[in-house]
Amino acid sequence: MRTIDEAALSEAAAARFRSEYDYAVFEYRRSAKVLQALERAGVTAHGRVLDAGCGGGGTALSLAEESAFAVGLDLEARFRGSGTRLAGEKGVANAAFVQGDAARLPFRSAAFDLVFSHSVIEHVASAEDYLRECFRVLRPRGVLYLSTAPTLSLAGAHLPRLLVDVLQAVTVRRLHAWIKASGFQLVREDRHVTGFFRRVLPGPVRRALEATPFTQDVMIGHIQCVLLKP
Hints:
Layout: H1 6-15, H2 20-40, E1 48-52, H3 58-66, E2 69-74, H4 83-90, E3 95-99, E4 112-118, H5 127-137, E5 138-148, H6 154-157, H7 172-182, E6 185-193, H8 195-200, H9 203-210, H10 213-219, E7 220-228
Parallel strand pairs: 1-2, 1-4, 2-3, 4-5
Antiparallel strand pairs: 5-7, 6-7
Helix pairs in contact: 1-2, 2-3, 5-7
């Protein structure tokens, strides 16, 4: 899914909570923006790709369209009747879905060229185990693309209101500690400050607060990391 159709995306966003299938359609429509974010971060979907926490499966299908083969894994098999149905509708034959625990991935070591993790690490029981498994299943020089939101940010704080389990309190410092312990090399990190703070705070004040541990976790609404397995 390469083309961003804002009208179709808005329609899909409005309907996304009706069913798992509707959410998968929303993920698929949104994935054009995800692919652009990957490319801005210097990452291309190629070879064998794992979506390690695929939800309804829409993003995994878009990754399959860009790569040799993509696997979507989810603990609760939300893809059944959603991602599988959408794959048939879109004619995507080079994708598979697997129910499994991302902290104990059911794949051999060095099986993937790219692991994709979008808004997943805050929902796993152990962030350390999750990153360790992502590291294991990547080939040498393989890449983990990880995006998340600090729990105290406007983006992170809405999740409990949607009745979504948040098992990890994500902070910028804690994320860095998890990455450091995992063996990954941090190649690139992009921090996106919420629009409200960009509008109301003068540049020098905003930059100073972005560097302060507590306030940065409130102001930064999205973190994207490119991690390399040496």
